Amino acid sequence: MTASLYERIGGEPAVDAAVDLFYRKVLADDRISQYFDTIDMDAQRGKQKAFLTFAFGGPNQYSGQDMRAAHAKMNLSEADFDAVMENLGATLKELGVPDDLIGEAAGIAMSVKGDVLNK
Amino acid sequence: MIRFRGRSLELHDGETVLDCLERSGERVPSSCRSGVCQTCLMQATSGEIPAESQRGLKPSLANRGYLLACACRPTADLELASGGPPEYPSKVLACDELAPDVVRLFLERPPELSFEAGQFVQLVRPDDGLVRPYSLASLPSEPMLELHIAVRPRGNMSRWLADAVGEVVALRGPLGDCSYQCSDPGKPLLLVGTGTGLAPLLGVLKDALARGHHGPIAVHHGSRTFEGLYQWQLLTELDDAHENLNLTGWIDEPAAIADPRLRMGRIERTVVTQFERIREADIYLCGNPALVAMLKKHAYLQGASLHRIHSDPFVTARAAGAAA
Q1: Which residue of A10, B22, B253, B312 could cross-link B286, Cys pair, CB 3.0 to 4.6 Å?
Q2: How confident is the model over B213-245, as pLDDT tens digits?
Q3: Do B316 and A60 lie within an 8 Å CB cutoff?
Q4: Which of A 1-20 lie inside 8 A of B, CB atoms?
Q5: Nearest to A96 by CA among A10, A2, A27
Q6: Is any Cβ of chain A less than 8 angstroms from the Cβ of B300?
Q7: Does B301 sit within 8 Å of A27, measured CB to CB?
Q8: Cα–Cα distance measured from residue B209 to residue B185, given in angstroms and rounded to the nearest whole number
Q9: pTM for the complete prediction?
Q10: Alpha carbon distance B292, A14 (integer Å)
Q11: What is the rounded CA–CA span in Å between residue A41 and residue A35?
Q12: Percent of chain A residues topping a pLDDT of 90
């Protein structure tokens, strides 16, 4: 039996290594940083960690409904979603995650696109 | 078994505290249910706290028995606080004016109130139960509690407090984690505040100096006018007495005195971005919420850990609403 993506990518230590890198990239990204101007940063970091755990195929109860409700009033565009995906890819590359695993994680993250964009 | 709001609740096998409370009809705010978002933060008052329910919490919270209900599977009995912090009566002993719109209040220190300088209390007015948060500027070793009150022209509580000597109020708390973390006396400290946001910073500063902190300490206090830097005299005395202290006052209007430590203008992001060793620093940001949010973001982007950024408790308290 092959190990899960979560195990192959390095489990919770990998998430911990990735979360600040990822959240800093998102905050510093002029295309999307304005969405984060008024939020509670501590809570948001927690949500970013939950998102990464989800994208890594980890133990999580992140549901499409949660994603839909959380982003419902934000009126996000494809470009916004793509910007987050780009930052996710760049984060994993920087951490030396192999391309095929990055692809798998991106695939999982893509699965919530419809919910995030409220489509 | 867990005890909560006078009820004893039996846990199913492997059930979390959050699941058990919800199954029993109790309402607990929650969000991620995976031990991550910290929405379901609760405080245990007795019992054994499973280590995994405190993962990721700031040490200041973990030390006071806080846990995440969604990640908590108790192996022994656990008693949970029903939300409200303890309440103590306290008499207003003295009041003096520090600036045209700032008064300093000295209150009797309730013997059971154990706190750290910089934390805050909810002050309850006896007649109508009106509540406002105020930071503690005094050290636990001082005989009285010291609060700084910004007196607003239409401030229901602040105008009453300015004339409340002799009244007995109730204090709830202490709350917040805006206090000196004495893990390493050599690390840098960055303290930035506007207006009466100075109160918790002063508490932290006095505590750090009293405990022999020898790492660099930068203090920035901002106000529209020089009079608004209402503890300038005290701050300059501390600055003169401590080699490792670096004081800057920020004002919009020219001051009547010349002091190289005064700068014209609003506090800028450079106080964070040009601070050496920001990644290792403990950072305290208090006062104007927009300024606090802006500086917090830049500190984080510079590599500071969110665990080390202690921001104005009132912003947090307001964001958490009546949940606390």
Answers
A1: B312
A2: 999 999 999 999 999 999 999 999 999 999 999
A3: no
A4: 20
A5: A10
A6: yes
A7: yes
A8: 9
A9: 0.80
A10: 30
A11: 12
A12: 57
